Amino acid sequence: MKRSYMLIVLLVCVAGLVFGSENGGREKGKASYYAKMFEGRKTANGEIFSNNELTAAHKELPMGTMVRVTNLANGKTIDVRINDRGPFISGRIIDLTEKAFDKIADRKSGVVNVTVQIL
Fold it and tell me: What is the pLDDT of residue 18?
């Protein structure tokens, strides 16, 4: 019990460092989506990746964190669970599955400006 409590406190602290209070707990940047070549591979937390799920990759947030991604161009949002690490391209803050990306943007755009907020 005490160990679980300490883990929760640690996760909240890490999330606080990533999403500081000075920006309202939001991170702003670019979102992209996974290439098809990752289908069926293991994610950083050991799950099998599927572009048909509502999951995402983030460089620092704890695995299992739920976030709301908002497309700044059209206001559309999607809630996803972090289960992988990335993206590893400069300027990008989150990689979404194709299913998640399709909910907020046209895949033809490739990359969109978003905010990411911990739920």
Answer: 54
